[in-house]
Write a structure and sequence with these properties.
The complex is a heterodimer of chains A (about 230) and B (about 325). Helices cover about 65% and strands about 0% of the residues of chain A. Chain A is an all-alpha fold and about 230 residues long. The longest helix of chain A is centred in the middle third of the chain and has 31 residues. Chain B is elongated, with a radius of gyration of 29 Å. Chain B is mainly α. Chain B has a two-stranded antiparallel sheet. Classes of the chains: A mainly alpha (about 230), B mainly alpha (about 325). At the A-B interface, strand 1, helix 4, helix 6, helix 7 and helix 8 of A face strand 1, helix 1, helix 4, helix 10 and helix 11 of B. Strand 1 of chain A pairs antiparallel with strand 1 of chain B.
Chain lengths: ~230, ~325
């Protein structure tokens, strides 16, 4: 407890709010300007990944509302299954381009290793989410993939508690557990990006000689807003 | 310790306007339109699943051969080991027997679950019950002798539509038992029997899927669709669709030695992929790896405007 704090300031709610505002003030959370070096199409792929995730969630919710068999027997169900499938393909394409872009930028530099770690875990959990989707299709693909995949999972003991031939378990993982994990990790990743800013370019010899043209801020954020 | 050349110094340069919400909105619209366009053009694959009934009708000899292997314990599932039974140790990674650690969590007794218990559900057939009782009461050696004779006769059997002409002299009760099982399967009764548990609602398809996987019904369809393990397996899907292309590295290891020829291929590939996944997550902390982007300066393409600007400033 800090000396001089009022009872209101000592409340847990006030402390969480104060800490959140300190870490992510509005101009950091929703910035309306970026360092001049943020000028490449590669930066768009993070937003494209989030847009594809939104499309996956919305189409998945529509499919989930009608149950796992609906899309096999109706044209409109098949349409939304198509939206869901292609959104997943776009999602992974955008995420992989985003990931490679961040790798070649060395985007973990300047105290951003946590951003990379959360993003990488999100990528791996997304693979599991998509995999359980293929197992939940109730068609030949689901039969073949499950009977093939079981051997790998059984070989390392995972199959004992994650049974790919149990449709009910895979469906639960696909529509609830893994999507919640992906969405939560994505939100965490985005907040870390907003908090630490976009990584600055690698320093080259000639850059060290260039005159400073703006106040120092750290972490790619304007000094007065950092 | 991080090299100073890998540092990301605070930005001291100019800023430019940026509209985060506008960018995200445009991305959402673009993705939605692209997903709709791809759906209209290509839809999504949906090959009907196989059933035990469709298998028994289309490939009755294969069905009977598989069911006999389940009865005498020579099928893949019967000899699998954990998590289905104790018939084998399973795959190992050096001294680690991970497959055994959590025991038999999904028990399957292939003779009982796939043959004897389903046959027991057929009502009003005292002759069949007598044959089952004769088989169960026989010694393991006698049971094996009957199933061996029957399996050999299936090798000479001919299928006429859904019927099988077989000469099972010396197969004892196995021949009438298998004829009844085939009839049960072709009438869809075995599909239901393999799902039956103590609960009304069913969601676990482990038993029928493993039964069909022991036969050739699934693998024949998969081979026709280029989905076998040596054909980059489960990362593909039916039809001309991209499938799970993000599993390319996992599937890749199965195509090369020593994995492609190892009895422990699944365990070794999984161990390798877990190690690589951990390394992928930890790239920022791995000396050398974290400096690759500096050594191979593709970042100069990404930030080419910035570096040009810096060069102009230095020149002036």
């Amino acid at each position: 407890m800090s000396v001089g704090e009022t009872p209101r300031e000592r409340s847990w709610t006030a402390r969480v709010r104060t800490r959140a505002e300190g870490a992510l003030p509005p101009e950091k959370l929703l910035p309306d300007e970026q360092p001049a070096y943020v000028a490449s199409w590669i930066y768009v792929f993070g937003a494209l990944t989030i847009a594809a995730l939104l499309s996956i969630v919305v189409s998945g919710m529509i499919l989930g509302l009608k149950g796992p068999s609906w899309w096999h027997v109706t044209g409109i169900g098949r349409f939304f299954n198509g939206i869901h499938l292609w959104s997943v393909e776009i999602f992974f394409f955008a995420m992989v381009v985003h990931l490679w872009g961040k790798f070649w930028m060395g985007a973990w530099r300047g105290g951003r290793s946590g951003t990379w770690v959360v993003g990488a875990i999100t990528f791996l959990i997304s693979i599991a989410a998509a995999f359980t989707g293929y197992l939940s299709q109730q068609n030949f693909d689901a039969q073949w993939i499950s009977t093939q995949a079981k051997d790998g999972l059984n070989a390392v003991g995972i199959g004992a508690f994650f049974n790919v031939t149990n449709f009910g378990q895979m469906y639960t993982f696909h529509v609830i557990l893994l999507p919640v994990a992906v969405i939560a990790l994505t939100a965490w990743h985005v907040l870390l990006v907003r908090r630490h800013g976009v990584v600055s370019p690698y320093v080259r010899a000639l850059e060290a000689q260039a005159p400073a043209s703006a106040p120092a801020s750290g972490d790619g954020q304007p000094a007065e807003r950092a | 310790m991080t090299s100073p050349r890998d540092a990301a110094p605070p930005w001291r340069g100019p800023y430019r306007p940026y509209d985060l919400i506008k960018e995200l909105t445009i991305c959402i619209v673009v993705v939605a339109l692209l997903a709709v366009l791809l759906t209209i053009l290509f839809s999504s694959p949906d090959d009907k699943p196989s059933t035990v009934a469709s298998w028994a009708r289309a490939q009755p000899v294969d069905f009977l051969t598989t069911a006999t292997a389940e009865l005498d314990g020579s099928s893949d599932t019967a000899g699998y080991g954990p998590p289905y039974n104790h018939a084998a140790t399973g795959q190992v990674i050096g001294p680690l027997q991970l497959q055994k650690w959590l025991g038999v969590s999904h028990p399957i007794d292939t003779a009982v679950d796939y043959v004897l218990a389903p046959l027991a559900t057929i009502p009003n057939d005292p002759v069949l019950r007598a044959q089952i009782a004769r088989y169960v009461a026989a010694s393991p050696a006698q049971q094996r002798a009957w199933t061996d004779v029957y399996t050999a006769s299936l090798g000479r059997a001919a299928a006429h539509g859904t019927a099988v002409t077989v000469s099972p002299a010396g197969a004892g009760p196995v021949a009438p038992m298998m004829a009844s099982l085939l009839a049960l399967a072709q009438s869809s009764g075995l599909d239901g029997a393999l799902l039956t548990s103590r609960q009304f609602y069913q969601t676990d398809y482990t038993k029928p899927l493993l039964f069909m996987a022991d036969g050739s019904v699934l693998s024949d369809r998969a081979a026709a669709q280029h989905l076998l393990g040596e054909q980059w397996g489960m990362m593909n899907e039916t039809g001309s669709y991209p499938g799970q292309v993000w599993l390319w590295l996992y599937t890749f290891w199965y195509q090369i030695k020593p994995f492609s020829t190892s009895d422990n291929a699944d365990a070794l590939v999984w161990a390798l992929m877990m190690l690589l996944s951990l390394a992928f997550i930890c790239i920022p902390f791995i000396p050398g790896v974290r400096s690759i982007p500096r050594w191979i300066p593709l970042h100069r393409l990404i930030w080419r405007e910035h570096y040009r600007s810096q060069a102009r400033s230095a020149a002036s």
